[in-house]
């Protein structure tokens, strides 16, 4: 369900993507959704966090519970559903920044910047291994950040997989490896 007015991730260079999305809430209201396991599960993946450099942030894959609206998960997702994995917190500056490692060597930074009563939420994903991973991560960050924007606007998100429809086509151009 891709809409032309949504934030779109951009390829910064061959191994870096960036996505910015405006959220209808102040930074102090958004920060708990990055750190609190139960709140993070509402838009991304829950799991405990030792919120200090060198601490572990655990992610539990359970996208089907993001919404109560029925919908069927794709076959490729069902094999991973329910799994948990731990990543290392690389840096943290509450309530503005959380940086952690991801997927065997890449790094993700969530940044929250006040813009009046709203928040600019930036996801920077660096050291992505190739174009296929770039496209995959872009689609995931796109949909997860959309769910967070919906929640911050005080609404209930629809089924995650329906929100994710069309995202693969949006980011298909990132599948090619840049020189």
| Radius of gyration, taken over Cα atoms and rounded to an integer in Å | 15 Å
State the secondary-structure class.
Answer: alpha+beta
Give the tally of structural domains. Answer: 1
The fraction of residues assigned to DSSP E strands is: 25-35%
CATH class: Alpha Beta
- Helix proportion: 25-40%
CATH topology: Alpha-D-Glucose-1,6-Bisphosphate, Chain A, domain 4
Number of strands: 7
Silhouette: globular
N-end to C-end Cα span: 31 Å
The CATH homologous superfamily is termed START domain
Mean pLDDT level: 89
Low-pLDDT residue intervals, each spanning 5 or more residues: 1-5
Q: What is the H/E order?
A: EEHHHEHEEEEHHH
Lay out the secondary structure.
Layout: E1 10-13, E2 16-23, H1 27-30, H2 32-35, H3 37-41, E3 56-60, H4 75-78, E4 84-93, E5 97-102, E6 106-115, E7 118-126, H5 131-152, H6 160-164, H7 167-170
Antiparallel strand pairs: 1-2, 2-7, 3-4, 4-5, 5-6, 6-7
Could you explain the architecture of this structure?
The chain has 179 residues and is of the alpha+beta class. Helix content is 27%, strand content 29%. A 7-stranded antiparallel sheet has the order 1-2-7-6-5-4-3, covered by helices on one side. The model is unreliable at 1-5 (pLDDT under 50).
